[in-house]
């Protein structure tokens, strides 16, 4: 979990920084005959992000009411839904590499199709229908860079480490042991006929 | 003992505390998964083969796809899948740089940038009524003059600027009920001729100023016979149409706005006249008419006189005419002869002058040619060369050039209707299909490379080598069964009635077979595919038999149409047998019985309420007679809101009936009040699902027994007002009610109502739980609810003494007729995306924890652990609950980007997800289909029963070698030391 959180917060920061670059005022426009209106909005994606997904508008779909209508973005990021009746609707943006909050859109019949928009995820109301991703999605796990500690911590690393300890530290330890006691133990062991290699082990006690 | 339990518990806690999500490294893409991109059956094709730039063809398809294909290799440059209600009516290229599509019955006009597919503009056109739609893009465009695009649809004629999509003018024809048939834009003229019919009996020609849209002149003339069918425009001032009796050809001339009729009886042209049909291609001064399975070519003389110039037998597909050099016009025709197809390109003026005649061997499983599109190019010797794009009956798309198939695309796979799995044959002794392992040195080298890769020490060339090695490795593409069950076949049935076997290793087509009607009658030449069933899965005593599948096809779109059954050998792809059945097919029910050759018994219900037993053998009949009293089934009448339960009654009476036909009696009915509830979704468990344990131990050492019944039906109903789209109803008007109904007794076991909610409902039913997705109008968010059902009648069986003394009811037979005491638990969560379909992983023994596979509106598939939809989640789980792996309750379900199993791919037009277990308990196959196909292998709890592909054998080997060396060195050292000790 930890790497996921770290990367998303980093990307979110990046998104925020880059999205400050320009800001065109776009009022939610709607027009039309008595009972059907037009919803116009805009999707804005930060120019470039840390991850490799090229934010191409040609791959983005805008979905009204869970698939009732699907539209695409123009080069400037605008989209339009035509012939929408008055009422409360749901607009979702699907773009690979980004997560957008669904938007609740109220089209008012009384105010000639005035549009009110609210992000349903954050409950933030929008003054204009400009949709920005909540976060950039990273679909792949990042490979941890080469790390000596990780190797050492692995079971095999621990085994090797133990061997190193035995090979290099054990003779040092043996030197500190009283030679008389050592001799006695060795004799004891020799009587038992245990291979001499294992005679090192009790010495470490 | 207690210690061991504790250790086990600790281990379990350790394992479960880490939330296992599906995750993938970028370099692992393509190791276990594959993705295939399709477009669907091509409806229109426009070539774009100018000298500069890449040669491409723009196509629109029946799957509402507009795409640009590479003409050399058939690859997709770009593609867009429009909404399901946004069917494409026409496609063309304007200004040499925009692709124009007309969709939604002529009310939506879009322009796409030709090189990259970016949408340039979009215009919604007025439409007031249903009518045919027509797109006319001026051909000879000069850069300085902006001729408008003319669109007729919904009773309006619109002129739209090709540059920015602005509507220049529109003409309302709704009042008169005028149907535009042809729009002619003579070059170098500002007058547009619009020819159409009024109430299909009066021909009207309008002359409209192309700049302003004003009607300059209008002429009309009544034709007493009335018109019908297709219209064929033969020249700039003449069209030919059939009269309503389909026996007279009427030539309508509208030279300079004057209308003249000229009638010619078809019987005057050909002897054996019947109902004629005008073929739609645009040929100049020529007309193709289909009479009695013959295609005749009729030349239209200057004075409107008709004469037959040629006739072709057999079914012939024709292209539109194509201007070639020197003001000549050519067209292509394709007809079959045996296993070959003949492509001919002729000049329209001179049919004897065949420009091109090619014969191409064609796979008979592609069926007949449906459509031909031709395009010409200048060869190096300055003569004309032709390439033809043909659409076959199985929806495949082929490019023919110079007598060969340059490329082909299996577009039938874009319309998969049903999928099942099949095993591959067992590897025979001594017959090694592919030698996988090479020498030890190579093996070591490979693993050294892998080790380098996993330590991130590999150079870019090494990475490429590793990737290549992985792709080829482990014989994953072999055509034999493997130990882990990773190699399998997915059998897919397409709407065109073609069966494909896809290999799970790389997604290649192992075999394909086109469904045919055995009687080959006129009415049912080509049945469409409906569903697939496992017919014979030999495993015990019929090992020598090949497994087979049952394919159900239908001869028409109507459910009462006669059906075709076909039995197909899975190993070879050959049809074992097929039969036209006299009755219709409404429902096919696999029964839980097999005969001695492991053929599964199936019941097929028809529209008359009879059921028919298959296979029609006496053995099957005797097995069925034994279980006669225990066969129940149900029907759902969605429109009337009725669910009925049925049981067997007796054999059919009447002379047509055979002994395999049975009548049924109605057992129960559940009627939903039509004024307040409408059925929108029904669902049962998968019949072949495996449940590992019925008991569920909770934290306080309590046991809950899952209510696992195969006869549970999940039904969701909404208020009739809420059955429409989101936004058409207020929260007060709509309510969603879900039911769990026992299909044997019709008893409603559980009812749950959600006020202020509406559909669409997408649900998944597994073991003892249902998870469903719907829309909450109050919160204006999607919601997911889980319902778990437990059997209370067994809850008393906790006492050990009771178990020992046998005073329990665990061995009591379970019957639907005994009144169950149920305990249901449910919980709801928000979900932030629209959903197209939900599935659940399935494993061989059902031990592995489950994941929900949620196909989102964005055509991605999200794997969500079942533990996120667990009704026992609480806000503050106790320590014991945490140890059990209960996640603290949150109001919405998390969407972790790493758990998209489709990673950075999309399964465009996603329609369904199929899961199948592999032999390895931890792993499951996932196959998703839509316009695209996607396959991957999932391990919902990680691969705990096998080493992953990433496991570094080299590191293990190196460690062992190092250890041995170290042991040797220390031994030598100690010997020396000992020696020196002795010398001292």
UniProtKB/TrEMBL annotation, chain A:
It comes from the Eukaryota. Residues 55-159 form the ER membrane protein complex subunit 7 beta-sandwich domain. One of its GO terms (cellular component) is membrane. Keywords: Membrane, Signal, Transmembrane, Transmembrane helix. It is a single-pass membrane protein. The chain crosses the membrane at residues 156-174. Residues 193-205 have a biased composition (Polar residues). Residues 183-205 are annotated as: Disordered. It is found in: Membrane. InterPro entries: Beta_sandwich_EMC7, Carb-bd-like_fold, EMC7. The keyword Transmembrane applies. Its main location: membrane. Residues 1-26 form the signal peptide. PANTHER family: ER MEMBRANE PROTEIN COMPLEX SUBUNIT 7. Belongs to the EMC7 family. This is ER membrane protein complex subunit 7 beta-sandwich domain-containing protein.
UniProtKB/TrEMBL annotation, chain B:
The keyword Hydrolase does not apply. Pfam families: Beta-prop_EMC1_N (PF25293), EMC1_C (PF07774). The chain crosses the membrane at residues 951-974. It is found in: Endoplasmic reticulum membrane. Component of the ER membrane protein complex (EMC). Residues 24-411 form the EMC1 first beta-propeller domain. It comes from the Eukaryota. The lineage of its organism: Eukaryota, Viridiplantae, Streptophyta, Embryophyta, Tracheophyta. Residues 766-983 form the ER membrane protein complex subunit 1 C-terminal domain. Keywords: Endoplasmic reticulum, Glycoprotein, Membrane, Signal, Transmembrane, Transmembrane helix. This is ER membrane protein complex subunit 1. GO terms for cellular component: endoplasmic reticulum membrane.
